[in-house]
């Protein structure tokens, strides 16, 4: 089968995911105001606790038998290898780039923990439904592929909530220790703001440009009866000044109203809405003071260059040794497990432990942006190798 035909097959599921994501993002904006903040939270809870488990167990019960699970024995090992190699590469990134201590666990977790469930539940059946799919009958492929993805999701959840959970928890412990050390160091610093002497002025004089009052400052002396005092004597405005102030007062109020933040925001909205909607996340990542650009590049390189190449070697070696069933779709799922973006549950863990939430968002932004290109390219390569 031609390479470009496979590229078309691989790109269609990614485009479908992007279109659905763009539609969901639009519905969640204040411009549309269809999905409010509370509605999004409730919808996320329903999907996480009801829809996804129901889809996973229903697909497993429909096509999977105990004999099938036994024949898929290499998938848990394959997922363990993704965490193993990703963890080693993440540890190397940490040792070379030396990020802040509380970010080490997050970096290793994003390098090692892939999205082994949600994306596969979408991508694998969608590839099976394409006309040029190399995996045979679309109905059988879609049903079996959904079972593979569901089994991968169940196994991936176990690894993520054990291994990755401990990494993020360790980051939280380091962050709390760092905050405590900084607070203790700050408390030991002498307070110089109240280090006054008997010759300190009660209030420094005003500049020559200050008008409308006259400041008289008297320094304190040794005698208590001669304690320094300050008298502020307002200048009496002339009649001409008073009349000009009264005439300009309405104009001054109009200018204040025009320069008020709500007014400026309303006017600026029409000119900046589309620009800010596309650039806000990029500015956030560029202004992040605790996450170096090299760290982002390193994580992206690990997830989309090194791990997929390792995955090809692992799956081909396991196939040559006779460890895998003959189904090429099963081989494809094993390979794609090495090339998915970081697991979304990592973000949930950073919120749970209240650590590195901004840095996690930045990493997710860039890794999921690159994923649209990387997943398409690697899916094409995987199908070309297996066809």
TrEMBL record:
Write out the transmembrane intervals: 12-34, 46-64, 70-94, 106-127, 147-168, 254-275, 295-317, 329-353, 365-386
Q: Which InterPro entries match?
A: Mem_transp_PIN-like, Na+/solute_symporter_sf, PILS1/3/4/5/7
Name listed for the protein in its UniProt record: Auxin efflux carrier component
Where in the sequence is the signal peptide annotated?
none
The UniProt keyword set, sorted, is:
Auxin signaling pathway, Endoplasmic reticulum, Membrane, Transmembrane, Transmembrane helix, Transport
Its cellular-component GO annotations read: endoplasmic reticulum membrane
The answer to whether UniProt assigns keyword ATP-binding to this entry is no
> Which Pfam families does the record associate with it?
Mem_trans
Q: What are the top taxonomic ranks of the organism? A: Eukaryota, Viridiplantae, Streptophyta, Embryophyta, Tracheophyta
Family from the record: Belongs to the auxin efflux carrier (TC 2.A.69.2) family.
Q: What function does the entry list?
A: Involved in cellular auxin homeostasis by regulating auxin metabolism. Regulates intracellular auxin accumulation at the endoplasmic reticulum and thus auxin availability for nuclear auxin signaling.
Q: How does it sit in the membrane?
A: Multi-pass membrane protein
Q: Which GO terms describe its biological process?
A: auxin-activated signaling pathway; endoplasmic reticulum to cytosol auxin transport
Which locations, inside or outside the cell, does it occupy? Endoplasmic reticulum membrane
